[in-house]
Design brief:
Chain B: Keywords: Membrane, Mitochondrion, Mitochondrion outer membrane, Protein transport, Transmembrane, Transmembrane helix, Transport. The structure holds 2 protein chains of 2 kinds. By secondary structure, chain A is mainly β. In chain A, 2% of the residues lie in helices and 62% in strands. Chain A contains 1 helix and 19 strands. Chain A is globular. Chain A starts with 29 loop residues before the first helix and ends with a strand. In chain A, 19% of the residues are buried. Classes of the chains: A mainly beta, B mainly alpha. At the A-B interface, strand 3 and strand 4 of A face helix 1 of B.
Chain lengths: 301, 72
């Protein structure tokens, strides 16, 4: 009479053959990016999204405000611009995603994501302009295994890249990437690690281009999370540290951050009504004496 | 001596022509891929958004055509 009795420490024992699938390599710093890098803008912004059916939507967006042009001197030069952007999105979840946005000056941003099979995904994105030699395109092939993901990238200008990330324990995943840029004759290797639990996420990334990026996000409660990030480039001796908070409340979402470059920023999204959002954005750069304020309205889901 | 010089010259010219044939084959390939990429870029630039709109208008439930232009 053999009865199977589960071992008493079964709940605490890790099944190393059944680890969760890690998040994709390019989304490693996702929580820190979402908290510390909101979509700050200057001027007035109006977005209107119209859903024609469950899968298809059209998007109209107007942005009026000063845009910065790169200048050699330390002063920032801004010229006032206004543009209208038309976009269309088709999402057939989860198999196909088509996303396109076109601006009045002729720039097109396009993204395609297609599931070729259960584990293999094809992604492509392109930014096309009318100016010669300023267009970029990139194609990715992603393969998702049981507890690993790999990606192969091909871009214009002879850009090749590959990355691999593997779950090592229930909470820790390690990964690496290599890339080769033919046009600039550069190649590089990078390694990354991510440790996450329900309450916190810590990530680290090192690359042979000299970049070291460490981030830590702690979820203090259901509504509040705090994030910090440290970025340094040991070849160009450039260091930036930033701290930020993210309050997700019932009617609004408020994100703020302070930087070691003397930059303080905040971003508020307030839900006025169903489908109507009011946005306020502020970025104060005390070192460069550049103050940017923006307001806007987003209509539609 | 003149014949040896002419033979050498002929040898050089034949090698030169073979190298130029190889070079022109790879150059042809590069030219064709550049031409194809240029055409693909123009097609994508003008045709991607209309393609998404056509696929969306033909998905079901099929939205009426007036919804495409009306702001409500």
């Amino acid at each position: 009479m053999a009865t199977t009795v589960p071992p008493p420490a079964a709940a605490a024992k890790v099944d190393y053959l059944n680890l969760p699938c890690p998040i994709p390599f390019e989304e490693l710093h996702r929580e820190a990016m979402m908290s510390l890098k909101p979509d700050l803008f200057e001027g007035m912004r109006f977005d209107f999204t119209k859903m024609l059916n469950q899968k298809f939507s059209l998007n109209h967006s107007v942005l009026m405000g000063p845009t910065e042009i790169p200048s050699q001197s330390t002063e920032t030069i801004k010229i006032p611009t206004a543009h209208y952007e038309f976009g269309s999105t088709f999402i057939d979840h989860p198999r196909l995603l088509l996303w396109g946005r076109i601006l009045t000056d002729g720039r097109l941003n396009a993204r395609v994501k297609c599931d070729l099979s259960e584990n293999l995904t094809f992604k492509a994105n392109a930014q096309l302009t009318n100016e010669p030699h300023m267009s970029h395109g990139m194609i990715n092939f992603d393969y998702k295994g049981n507890d690993y993901r790999t990606q192969f990238q091909l871009g214009n200008g002879a850009l090749l890249g590959a990355s691999y990330i593997q779950s090592v324990t229930q909470h820790l995943s390690l990964g690496g990437e290599v890339f080769w840029a033919g046009q600039h004759r550069k190649s590089g290797v990078g390694y990354a690690a991510r440790y996450n639990t329900d309450k916190m996420v810590a990530t680290g990334q090192v690359a042979s281009t000299g970049m070291v990026l460490l981030s830590y996000v702690q979820k203090v409660s259901e509504k509040v999370s705090l994030a910090s990030e440290f970025m340094c480039n040991y070849l160009s001796r450039d260091v930036t540290a930033s701290f930020g908070y993210d309050y997700i409340l019932r009617q609004c979402r408020l994100r703020g951050k302070i930087d070691s470059n003397g930059c303080v920023a905040a971003f508020l999204e307030e839900r006025l009504n169903m489908g109507l959002n009011f946005i306020l954005s502020a970025e104060l750069d005390h070192r460069k004496k550049d103050y940017k304020f923006g307001f806007g309205l987003t209509v539609g889901e | 001596m003149a014949s040896r010089v002419s033979l050498k010259a002929k040898g050089k010219s034949s090698k030169g022509s073979k190298a130029s044939e190889d070079r022109s084959a790879s150059e042809c390939l590069k030219e064709w891929t550049t031409w194809a990429m240029r055409k693909a870029k123009v097609v994508t630039h003008y045709g991607f958004i209309p393609l998404v709109i056509i696929i969306g208008m033909n998905s079901d439930p099929k939205p009426p055509l007036s919804q495409l232009l009306s702001p409500v």
